[in-house]
Amino acid sequence: MKIFSSTSETPPVRAHPWLLLVLVLVTLGSPWSKAAPPVPQYGGTLNVGTVHVTLSALSWDPTDWAWKSNHDTGMVRELLFAGDLDKSVRKGGVYPFISDAYLPDDAIRGELAESWEWRDPLTLVVKLRKGIMFTELPEVMDSRELVADDVVFSFNLLDESPKRIPTYFDHIREVEAADDHTVIFHFSEYNAEWAYRFGYGYYSAIVPRETGKIDRKNWRNVVGTGPFRMERYILGNKQSYIRNDDYWDTERIGDNRYPIPFVDRVNYRIIKDEATQLTAIRTGQLDILEGIRWIAGDHLKASSPELIWNRWLATGGNFMALRVDRPPLDDIRVRRAMNLAVNQREIVDIYYGGNAELMAYPQHPGFGDYFEPLENMPESVQALFSYDPEQARQLLAEAGLAQGFEIEVQVCTCSPDHMDLIPLLDSYLSKVGIRLIIKPMEYASFLSAMTTRTHTPGYLMGSGHVNPTTTLRKSFVSGQTWNPSMYSDPEFDRAMAELYQTRDEATRIRMVRELTVNILDQAPYIWLPTGYVYSAWWPWVKNYGGELRAGAVRPAPIYARIWIDHVLKQQMGFD
């Protein structure tokens, strides 16, 4: 029986004046230490332009199953598991914590969970930490301790929602509160994604039972156990969070542990215009800007050389989904022709200036052995990433479309990259007789069109890689919410079900590779290159190395551990 535990053996250090004096002397170069760790500073505000800087919150209600919920409420609501940031590259580990929702087993720590063990192959026992408190929220609840009944409530709240993703929790028969600090998950069948599905995934937040009686859509009613409390939300402007003074967790620095969070406030700035985003980081209105296109990065490096940078391969793939449930896109010859008509290599070399990978979706190179390089794939797959307009015309003629056709394509104005890319795709496809009717849309309407299945035959979008198995399930299994191509193949569905029930990871890797080749070959999308992205931050941002997520789209544990060097900020001319 294997038991996992993340309980700290080092007690938290409180900021007594004598202790701070000693630590400051050590930091400044005392005679008994040559390389003392830094001393964190408390106070101040952290202003962040997150990866989703253009997007306002989608929903505050967990029953809406909004993909961005952990990003928006994760400062307040916590999960059973989180990424173990002590294993980050910045701290000498191997994990960059860039992936939008993939944590290898040894990169997971307990957050609300203190430990967990398999009692038998279909029974998982989770022990909760004791003494973790929900904050007081006037007219909603008094401050009280988190107990197992809250975990059961949170699970059932999601599972019973009419908006739930089909099949998402089908592997769970029952969630039981054995006592105040013990939760038992009874499985109906094994699921290889169990830790992601209810532990650190998009829909894993634990909320108090009192939220069953309130308007959960109101941001003022967001309450949890996290490092911050919700202060204010201004649509299209910012989300503001203030420090939870009674937060339970600590940060290890050297041999000491310090109470967190270090900053008093975190502001998520919502900025739709790319030029305004760049101005905000350049002028110090933002301390961190997490998502910068390469074409803007070069200019910003020249104008603000003091900024610190991190370059990372985007964790969301680009593609034009092709609705295979409608003619002529139900013909694989047409879909393959559309891929062959697009000069992917030219997009990499010229449009992205070489700052992109030709093929990095639906699998991501960061997934290790799950990712199979394009050069190792069958010729029929490799051909889809080549440029062959003559072969495209031939395939269209074979499909009875020698004269071409028109296709409506929706594109989101929230993505500067896609708004720049769509005219280029139109140009390529027009050369083989395919004309795009481009329909720009604001994000809320754009997303709603897909989830209500009213989207056009072509749908230019980006979608997160998530993890090696979900990237296939969500996009290509029949009836899934995030299946914009409406792809449906009973054999593919059966293979995915078998994959999830497979315990041996080496076998799962082989199966994932085979299924990835299969779906690439079917061309339900026009496969597009995946670009590199930059993050930039000022030197006064401390205890940070460009990490983006410590769970599914959840940066809260990262921000809670950042502090601001106020002296350095003033020395650099910023108040």
Describe the model.
The chain has 575 residues and is of the alpha+beta class. Helices cover 27% and strands 23% of the residues. It has 17 helices and 26 strands. The strands form seven sheets. Strands 2, 11, 12, 15, 16, 17, 19 and 24 form an eight-stranded mixed beta sheet that branches. β9 (172-179) and β10 (182-187) form a beta hairpin. The model is unreliable at 1-33 (pLDDT under 50).
Label this structure with key terms:
575 residues; alpha+beta; D-Maltodextrin-Binding Protein, domain 2; Dipeptide-binding Protein, domain 3; 2 domains; eight-stranded mixed sheet; five-stranded antiparallel sheet; 17 helices; 27% helix; disordered N terminus
